[in-house]
Amino acid sequence: MTQMPDSRPISREQLAPEVKSIYTELTMVETKCIHVDQAQATVVHDPKTDSNSKLVSDHWQALIAFHRTLLHKHHDFFLASQHPSASLALRRLASKYSMPARMWKHGIHSFLELLRRRLPESLDYMLAFIYLAYQMMALLYKIVPAFEDTWIKCLGDLRRYQMAIEDEDIRNRETWARVARSWYSKAANKNPPIGRPYHYLAILARPNALQ
Description:
It is a single chain. This protein has eight helices and no strands. The protein has helices at residues 12-45, 57-81, 88-96, 99-117, 123-143, 148-165, 170-190, 196-205. Helix 4 (99-117) runs antiparallel to helix 5.
């Protein structure tokens, strides 16, 4: 069961060391994810690498597990630092350390790009990871509204990735495209001066977007 931010009583004095502990664990996992992503990216781009070489299932599962753990650590950090009992200083930590951007970059995007470059071998793993990441972002969208703009962007991007790799069922592609458009439209409505959502809406509106 998902724990809501205000689901248990905790004092400010208790929150500070808890947030510090979570952040320490998070940075350790983040460093590991950065390392493994860079190592795999180097292999992919190495001209000496056999283009037919494939990662075994256990290796893919291990990579997914690293990134799943990082997403869970971010979830715990956001719940603790944005807790109703948190001081203003604690609440500001997520912005101070660029936690939403780091979650997307190191927890999701770098790994998605690695998976994308390994297609079609990685298709099933990529779909599974997109589903996992989407669930996490949808949860944060509901329970950590302070960073709603970031969650909306990430949710749109995840559905756009899913649309792009859906080859078997045009109806599924249309569904993912429609969901992506809804998130980008929401982002555009919330922040009209920002051009990025309009860019992706234009891409999704092209006649060949689903081909």
